[in-house]
């Protein structure tokens, strides 16, 4: 099993995915533990002084005006965790919670938060034991960090609340800690605040969405190529010299992918055989432009994620010169914006894929294919309602593309009077990513049936490999009407798992 070693310089997207999805173990470098101890010494020194320091000897948020005496400070740190663990709604997915915990540990290990080494060591122990705190869907405004989600994680660190064990069973956190020999942490000055003041939830979901969307953009190039072939379209629009004169990097990548997939096809370029057709429809001809713009948006999102992965997000922070300063780095705006941008790009990719599917099913626009790709149109309805399902998904994606990051609601008695809603942006993006995979699955299902009805022997080697792999995976081919839902779910699994890309790459080599 892989081990991810956290130092003082942050983490990588690959680290997040390894821990969140691959259950990689987490270790702390000696440098990180030394930096944590050094920053804690600064906090201990401040705690011994009479001067008020936010998070050390004061209340929080709008209550920061009250000075807290030394005898009440441990209670103060416990109380902030308990009171802020106020989430409601369904449980958040295990991979999201593991990403959340790992990214908070990443900041704690930076040496800028002032927690004791025992805090970071215990959080690493929770991850390595496969203990996952119960975190709820609602509670974060994406400013002052993902407060409620992180508080539920901190509650487990204290041995309180509920958590999920390695077997998926939810039990009291105290029982799980005891079963794994992990002592609950007794929080001291600053530590409760440090555990819950970061953008870790929205960042974790951004990293995972970027990984998922990268695969889906490659899938979309393959399904677009298959649809182009089924509609007897021309691949001349994919020529590199055409894309070089509009030098958007993502556009060139999408066109190159489609060229590789279509190489050797005997079906492309016959768009004038049945009726004059000077140009293919936009959904075919402009596929690289739309997918390319989405890829460029994805590159920007990755840049923001990488910057955030290198950040230490807390308030106040311990600086390298020993100063402890309040700041606004916990505001989730940078992450929230790109989460919203990705939802817009994903919705448009879903929309153009649905338009290609609709064209495949319409006998007036499909250039000789049977209505709805039915075996006996009229007796059979073919894929008519599969396109309805696809259209419903596209409509939902358009609703999910409405930005969350513009919807600030003031909180904490107007002390926190502008918030990012980044957690909400991340939650809706996760739904949009899954919707996109289903939309592409319907296009794959329709286009694969269409090319076989056309002339499967004239397919390009790559699309022939894709169709063969889909059939081997259980995605049904042409024929009379059948119970479609299981077939579509099988196509979805074929897309979501990456099997679609693997099949194409057996012929094309690596696709971008």
Automatic annotation (TrEMBL):
Q: Which GO terms describe its biological process?
A: cinnamic acid biosynthetic process; L-histidine catabolic process to glutamate and formamide; L-histidine catabolic process to glutamate and formate; protein homotetramerization
> Which reaction(s) are listed as its catalytic activity?
L-histidine = trans-urocanate + NH4(+)
List the pathway annotation: Amino-acid degradation; L-histidine degradation into L-glutamate; N-formimidoyl-L-glutamate from L-histidine: step 1/3
Principal place where this protein is found? cytoplasm
What Gene3D superfamilies does the entry give?
A: Fumarase/aspartase (Central domain), Fumarase/aspartase (N-terminal domain)
PTM comment text: Contains an active site 4-methylidene-imidazol-5-one (MIO), which is formed autocatalytically by cyclization and dehydration of residues Cys-Ser-Gly.
The protein's location, in the record's own words, is:
Cytoplasm
Name one molecular function that GO assigns to this entry. Answer: histidine ammonia-lyase activity
Modified-residue entries (2,3-didehydroalanine (Ser)), positions: 144
**Could you tell me the keywords of this UniProt record?**
Cytoplasm, Histidine metabolism, Lyase
InterPro entries noted in UniProt: Aromatic_Lyase, Fumarase/histidase_N, HutH, L-Aspartase-like, Phe/His_NH3-lyase_AS
Q: Where is this cross-link: 5-imidazolinone (Ala-Gly)?
A: 143-145
Q: Which domain of life is it from?
A: Bacteria
What GO terms fall under cellular component here?
A: cytoplasm
Give the E.C. number(s): 4.3.1.3
Similarity comment: Belongs to the PAL/histidase family.
Q: Which PANTHER family match?
A: HISTIDINE AMMONIA-LYASE
Descriptive protein name: Histidine ammonia-lyase
Record the organism.
Streptomyces benahoarensis
């Amino acid at each position: 099993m892989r081990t991810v070693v956290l130092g003082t310089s942050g983490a990588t997207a690959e680290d997040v995915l390894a821990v969140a999805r691959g259950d990689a173990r987490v270790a702390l470098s000696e440098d990180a533990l030394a930096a944590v101890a050094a920053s804690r010494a600064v906090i201990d020194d401040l705690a011994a002084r009479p001067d008020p320091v936010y998070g050390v000897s004061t209340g929080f948020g709008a209550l920061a005006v009250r000075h807290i005496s030394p005898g009440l400070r441990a209670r103060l740190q416990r109380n902030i965790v308990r009171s802020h663990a106020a989430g409601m709604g369904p449980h958040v997915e295990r991979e999201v919670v593991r990403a959340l915990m790992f990214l908070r540990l990443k900041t704690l290990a930076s040496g800028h938060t002032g927690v004791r080494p025992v805090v970071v060591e215990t959080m690493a122990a929770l991850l390595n034991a496969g203990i996952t705190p119960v975190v709820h869907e609602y509670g974060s405004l994406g400013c002052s960090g993902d407060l409620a989600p992180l508080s539920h994680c901190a509650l487990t660190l204290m041995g309180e609340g509920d958590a999920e064990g390695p077997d998926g069973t939810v039990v009291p956190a105290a029982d799980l800690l005891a079963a794994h020999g992990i002592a609950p942490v007794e929080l001291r000055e600053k530590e409760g605040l440090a555990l819950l003041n970061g953008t870790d939830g929205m960042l974790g979901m951004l990293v995972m969405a970027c990984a998922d969307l990268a695969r889906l953009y490659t899938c979309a190039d393959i399904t677009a190529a298959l649809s182009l072939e089924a509609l007897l379209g021309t691949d001349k629009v994919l020529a590199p010299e055409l894309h070089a004169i509009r030098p958007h990097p993502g556009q060139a990548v999408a066109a190159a992918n489609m060229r590789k997939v279509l190489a050797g096809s005997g079906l492309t370029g016959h768009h004038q055989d049945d009726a004059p057709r000077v140009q293919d429809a936009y959904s075919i001809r402009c596929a690289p432009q739309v997918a390319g713009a989405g890829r460029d948006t994805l590159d920007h999102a990755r840049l923001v994620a990488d910057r955030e992965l290198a950040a230490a997000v807390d308030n106040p922070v311990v600086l390298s010169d020993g100063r402890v300063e309040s700041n606004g780095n916990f505001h989730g705006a940078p992450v929230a914006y790109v989460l919203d941008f990705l939802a817009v790009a994903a919705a448009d990719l879903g929309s153009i894929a649905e338009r290609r599917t609709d064209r495949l099913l319409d006998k007036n626009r499909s250039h000789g294919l049977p209505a709805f790709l039915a075996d006996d149109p009229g007796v059979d309805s073919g894929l008519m309602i599969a396109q309805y399902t696809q259209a419903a998904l596209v409509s939902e994606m358009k609703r999910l593309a409405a930005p969350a990051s513009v919807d600030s609601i003031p909180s904490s008695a107007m002390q926190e009077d502008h918030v990012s809603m980044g957690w909400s942006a991340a939650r809706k993006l996760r739904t949009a990513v899954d919707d996109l995979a289903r939309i592409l699955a319907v296009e794959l299902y329709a286009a694969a049936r269409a090319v076989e009805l056309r002339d499967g022997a004239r397919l390009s080697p790559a699309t022939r490999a894709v169709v063969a792999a889909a059939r081997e995976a259980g995605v049904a081919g042409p024929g009379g009407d059948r119970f479609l839902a299981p077939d579509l779910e099988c196509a979805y699994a074929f897309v979501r798992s990456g099997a679609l890309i693997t099949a194409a790459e057996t012929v094309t080599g690596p696709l971008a």
